[in-house]
Amino acid sequence: MSQYQTAGVNARLKVFALLEAQGVPASEADDLVASLEAGAVAGAQCEVVELGGMAPASRGEVFADGWDDGVTAVSEALVGIADRDWSRRGGRSAGAAELAVHIADVRQRERADLVRLERFVRETVLPRPHPYTTERRRVLEALGEAGGLCTAQR
Length: 154
Fold this sequence. Notes:
By secondary structure, the protein is mainly α. The longest helix has 30 residues, at about 95-125. Helix content is about 70%, strand content about 0%. α1 (about 1-20) packs antiparallel against α2 (about 25-50), α1 (about 1-20) packs antiparallel against α4 and α2 runs antiparallel to α3 (about 60-90).
């Protein structure tokens, strides 16, 4: 999910830069981007609503009821998200400064995730494979430490 958040933030920054290059005032740029964001959530909500009644008939009536209840819950959640974010910002998008703080936060979380993943690989995965095997070589390659290894066969 964080890849979409990062992509979204990067896209917003590009839109702000393009609008600024065209001489659009920051407040107007905020309004335009907020409208785009609200439109994206509304578009997602429209797609979710269309899933109502689309449960596979072979799964049975109980499954179909659960499916439709889920569609309704997600649709309502999306509307709530759009309304809450729109009113919280007063109809304005996050400005470039807010986005920079958000990017820094996302990158810090990504780095922390990578540190945890590397620790897990070193403590749990690396000790399992036998030395001089392709499996161990793959683990070392993932850690960036396979440079001096001979080609392993197994």
